[in-house]
Every structure is written in structure tokens, then in C-alpha cells.
Amino acid sequence: MVHGDGIGKEHHFSGEKLTTLLALYKYESFDQALAMMRGVYEVGGKGHSCGIYSFDPDHVHRLAMAAPVSRIMVRQPQSKANAGAFNNGMPMTSSLGCGTWGGNIISENVHLKHYMNTTWVSVPIKEDKPSDEELFGDFYDPALEGVVETITT
């Protein structure tokens, strides 16, 4: 373990490390921790994963909303849990998709279903379409139906 001395391309510990090295960063508030996480992901590693050792559901939720990753492990060892385990519900794999964040086509753990060819046979069914009011809720205003507004600068 090393103490992170900064975040950015010039700070090598803030980038991806393909070795048994863990960079630790201290923070004063959870907001600061989220800002630091965003900075680290700007250096590299978007899409892959992150972890949080917290029992605070708000912190877990805020991380999930902010982190540009395909998997977040809560109170689990990253290197083992990301690849799937019997106790976390992730499909077991040795290949992790990082989604468009990381330049991949999928954001799932690549497993057997991804190696199987699937043929979809589609026949017409009764339309199952929500109304505009159901889709937009409080933002839906029927008085605006058909109204087009043009803004010029």
C-alpha cells in the first residue's frame, strides 16, 4: 500500500496498476471522496469497477449514481468479487465487460450466454405502450400537445 500523493497522469499511483499495489487516499467528506473517485477515473479505468466498504446506504447509492463503472462491490474484495461469486449473484467469469465507459460493447461479466448464438423470432403482438402521462408523470402537460417552440439566438 502507498499513500496517494495526487491525482492525474503525472501521479502514477492514481492510474491503473497491474500489480499487487494499492494506492490509499485520505478524504475529509464523502463529497470529496466522490470528487477524488471522478478524478481517478479521468486518469483511466472507466467502466471496470469500484468498491465501497460502507454500511451507509446513502453512500452506496451516491457512489452508484456517480461512478462510471459496470460493477460496484459493497463490502467485498474487488479482485475476487468482480469476477462473480456464489455469494454475490454476479455471473462467474474471467473477462469483465466495461461498457462504453471503457470502450467495450457490453458492461456485464462475459459468460456463457455471450458465447451462444441467439435467434430472435418476432411475431406481431398486441401493442403494450404506456401513455405520455404514464411516461412523463408530473412533467406531462396535455396543453402542450402539438405546441412547437422555436428559439433563435
What does this 3D model show about the protein?
The protein has one domain (2-115): Aldehyde Dehydrogenase, Chain A, domain 2, CATH 3.40.309.10. The chain has 153 residues and is an alpha/beta fold. The strands form 2 sheets. It has a two-stranded parallel sheet with strand order 1-2. Strands 3-4 form a two-stranded parallel ribbon. The longest helix has 14 residues, at 30-43. Helices cover 24% and strands 7% of the residues.
In short:
By secondary structure, the protein is an alpha/beta fold. 24% of the residues lie in helices and 7% in strands.
Layout of helices and strands:
Layout: E1 2-3, E2 23-24, H1 30-43, E3 50-52, H2 57-66, E4 72-74, H3 78-81, H4 112-115, H5 132-136
Parallel strand pairs: 1-2, 3-4
Label this structure with key terms.
Aldehyde Dehydrogenase, Chain A, domain 2, two-stranded parallel ribbon, two-stranded parallel sheet, 24% helix
Domains, number = 1
CATH fold group: Aldehyde Dehydrogenase, Chain A, domain 2
User: In angstroms, what is the radius of gyration?
Assistant: 21 Å
Q: Can you list the strand order of the major beta sheet?
A: 1-2
Order of helices and strands: EEHEHEHHH
Give the helix/strand class: alpha/beta
Number of helices: 5
Per CATH, the class reads: Alpha Beta
CATH architecture: 3-Layer(aba) Sandwich
**What is the 3D shape?**
extended
State the distance separating the first and last CA atoms. Answer: 55 Å
Q: Summarize the biggest pleated sheet.
A: 2 strands, parallel
